[in-house]
Amino acid sequence: MSTNVLRTPDGWWAVRDERAVHVDTEAVTTAELLADRAAVREAAASGEAGTPVADLVALPPVTTPCRVVAQMVNYRSHAKDSGFTGDIPPTFFRKASGSVSGPHDTIVRPAHVKFLDYEVELGLVMGASLPVGTVVEEQDLPRYVAGLVLTNDVSARDVQLTKTQFYESKSYPTFTPTGPYLTLLEPEDFAHLLNLRLRLNVNDAPRQDRTLADMIVRPAQALTLLARFQTLDPGDLLLTGTPGGTALKAPPKPVAKISALLPPAVRWKAFFKGQAKNPLYLRDGDLITATIATPDGRIDLGEQRNAVADAR
């Protein structure tokens, strides 16, 4: 069975139901903790009463600096929302690790960003080096992936679209809420990944709700494609895409065809004028809640609760 690990200012904790036992380790980084899994197992099996999880302040369980890589348009429902048809080439982009924030931290919208969007995503945390040229089969996943985290790939859509710039639009501080748990997997847990269900609500209104069965490029294939050009090391993070339901959606095809005939400046002005009427974009005071878990609770990455605030 998987083991949930929490990171706080006082170190690492193995979580059992609503209580947590302190892990006796000198590990400071996620990579160091993964090298000391025996200490995690010992804490998880301990007979100590532990501390209520509710009394602990959760930090992101993925420590930085690290590599943060993400997959673009990797769920069929998201591809449909985005107006894609036919085969979609697998695409990766990088996020600054400075964007990683805690599972309950406030998401801060920069003053120049008008269209702030959410993307609940499953994060894979590497447990072993993935050299360039590695081919990963399904049965190899336990060798390379140590665990999972819940993430939110927050996106400044006006920056992303006008500049075709993913790195900037997704890398502002607080734009990658991560955690609360680092869920360490046992080899037998990997057979249950497709049952994981991703959910995200804004102000209690459901926005995203899909399982990994909707995923286009699954983890083993994604790691193989990424390893064509990118090395990953223990503690690095791969975000595996988001399902449909984001605020941004492609315009209807007739509108898109007409817009394509317009000069770029006129086209973007018209597009964002329409987006300004979209009530789904994040606003000051919104509350985002997100979860990823299997229906039977075998794997449960916990819950994120992030308020949204305008930069001041």
From TrEMBL:
All residue ranges annotated as the Fumarylacetoacetase-like C-terminal domain in the record: 68-308
Stretches of the chain forming a coiled coil according to its record: none
InterPro entries, per database record: FAH, Fumarylacetoacetase-like_C, Fumarylacetoacetase_C_sf
Single Gene Ontology MF annotation: catalytic activity
Gene Ontology BP annotations: small molecule metabolic process
PANTHER family named in the record: FUMARYLACETOACETATE HYDROLASE DOMAIN-CONTAINING PROTEIN 2A, FUMARYLACETOACETATE HYDROLASE DOMAIN-CONTAINING PROTEIN 2A-RELATED
Protein name listed in UniProt: 2-keto-4-pentenoate hydratase/2-oxohepta-3-ene-1,7-dioic acid hydratase in catechol pathway
